[in-house]
Design brief:
Aldehyde Dehydrogenase, Chain A, domain 1; 15 helices; 2 domains; Aldehyde Dehydrogenase, Chain A, domain 2
Length: 497
């Protein structure tokens, strides 16, 4: 019998109102059911928001360093349980152990950063224009947050959102992706073990259309943080605008790695394989376009093709495996569809190109690491986010053309250039339209203490990670303290005339 999971509302593990459930299966072996989860809806969302609203009134008054102490404990527990969480995550969404360990580590790094931020959360003190008056701007909590997260980083992405939100004094309802509800449940168990007060963190399982949208529409939710597709992000933004909720969106990408004729090609090769096929290409930061200078195009393409063919597909729990399965049936079908579209548009399959059903792969959603060559900017495989192990390779004549091609997308998350020429590197830093640019490193690998996010249709101007995320989760309050004992009129009493 598969393990049965529950929602977590107001400090208690509870079933959903309806007895409906959904299963979560291992994408590397669909015979294995990881767990059975409650299919919740409006009713559970309502209870969870109510609990979060009530808890907010006391949580906002807990000193921020004390809130940080709980996050420090969360970090300690995650550290102690790192291997257990990584293994569960691999079984749940398929990426290899090396990467799921990294995913948990990103959560741990975020916990310790947020814990120490509890002792900062700096405001400003500013001189007043009037005598005997003190001006300051301080950060205050906002209220109830809806945390809606994807399956590709089941620990890193929820923790990027939840930890800063909590240290700032907000409470929350967490709606994890229905492909990774077990890892999400484990995270909430860790909160419970660390002593989070009842109602501060609530967990509601279920679909995006039911639970996610009920949160977005709920009048008592003040802020929404969402990572997922651009299409859903736009919908959330539209609905949230009706009640002027604060919204942070982290959406799609079509990230490019540029390889110049002066690049260290061996280094660029390692970078593109990691960027394109790590996490089976299922990252918002994944390298999905490779833009190569014509002078090294043929040589570099053959290097990529030779290596892509040697990557070992399989169950991510086995240490020797390089690339795990796609997360589910739909995702693999999407990959197959895009390969077909690429070929119809005139690209050639230089490596891979098919679903993989060989030894040990028959019961998983595996797809070969695929390289499409001869891709041009107008093709759909150069424009649309595929979210799978497909790399589109394009040829350019110059740095200027490489940057024009890299920018020819509606997205703007990550980017990379391999060059030994410092002038090329700085021109790329200035001219590539993306939230993140790597020099001589792949498009993936963001660190928890740096701002993370993108421009154009990748987001709506907010950043996660680092010091910047604290701006999203707190409101500025401006305070004037007049200790003159008399009415002082700004702009009037201190003016010359
Ligand atoms: C994502 O794909 O949404 O930079 C997050 C990276 C990871 C985070 C990716 N640290 O690839």
């Amino acid at each position: 019998m598969a393990k049965k999971f529950q929602n977590y509302i107001n400090g208690k593990w509870v079933d959903a109102a309806s007895s409906k459930t959904f299963e979560n299966r291992n994408p590397a072996n669909w015979d294995e059911v990881v767990g059975v989860f409650p299919l919740s809806g409006k009713e559970e969302v309502h209870q969870a928001v109510k609990a979060a609203r009530t808890a907010f009134e006391s949580w906002r008054l807990v000193p921020a360093p004390k809130r940080g102490d709980i996050l420090k404990k969360v970090g300690d527990i995650l550290t102690a349980r790192k291997e257990e969480i990584a293994r569960l995550m691999t079984r749940e969404m398929g990426k290899v152990l090396l990467e799921t360990r990294g995913d948990v580590q990103e959560g741990i790094d975020t916990a310790y950063y947020a814990a120490s931020e509890g002792r900062r959360l700096f405001g400003h003190t500013v001189p007043s224009e009037l005598p005997n008056k003190f001006n300051m701007a301080i950060r205050v909590p906002i209220g109830v947050a809806a945390i809606i997260t994807p399956w590709n980083f089941p620990m890193a992405i929820p923790t990027w959102k939840m930890f800063p939100a909590l240290v700032c004094g907000n409470t929350m309802v967490f709606k994890p992706a229905s492909d990774t509800p077990a890892t999400a449940t484990l995270l909430v168990e860790v909160f419970q073990e660390a002593g989070i007060p009842a109602g501060v963190v609530n967990l509601v399982h279920g679909g995006g259309n039911e639970v996610g949208m009920a949160l977005v529409e709920h009048p008592d939710v003040d802020l929404i943080s969402f990572t997922g597709s651009t299409a859903v992000g736009k919908k959330i933004s539209e609905i949230a605008a009706r009640t002027l909720k604060r919204v942070s969106l982290e959406l799609g990408g079509k990230n490019a790695q540029i390889v110049m004729d002066d690049a260290n090609l061996d280094l660029a090769l390692e970078g593109v394989l990691w960027g394109a096929f790590g996490t089976t290409g299922q990252r918002c930061t994944a390298t999905s376009r490779l833009i190569v200078h014509e002078k090294v195009y043929d040589k570099f393409l053959s290097m990529v093709v030779a290596k892509a063919g040697t990557l070992r597909l399989g169950d991510g729990l086995q240490e020797k495996v390089d690339v795990g399965p796609c997360v589910n049936e739909r995702q693999r079908a999407t990959v197959e569809e895009y390969v077909k579209i690429g070929v119809q548009e005139g690209a050639t399959i230089a490596a891979g190109g098919h679903k993989a059903t060989g030894d040990g792969l028959a019961k998983g959603w595996f797809h070969e690491p695929t390289v499409l060559a001869g891709v041009t900017s107008t093709m759909r495989v150069a424009r649309e986010e595929i979210f799978g192990p497909v790399l589109s390779v394009m040829k350019v004549k110059s740095l200027a053309e490489a940057i024009t091609v890299a920018n020819d997308t509606v997205y703007g998350l990550s980017s990379s250039i391999y060059t030994q020429d410092i002038n090329n590197a700085y021109a790329a830093i200035r001219d590539i339209k993306a939230g993140i640019t790597y020099i001589n490193a792949p498009t993936i690998g963001a660190e928890a203490h740096m701002p993370f996010g993108g421009v154009k249709e990748t987001g709506n101007g907010h950043r996660e990670g680092g010091w910047t995320v604290y701006d999203f989760y707190s409101e500025w309050k401006t305070v004037y303290v007049d200790y003159s004992g008399q009415l002082q009129r700004a702009q009037i009493d201190n003016a010359d005339n």
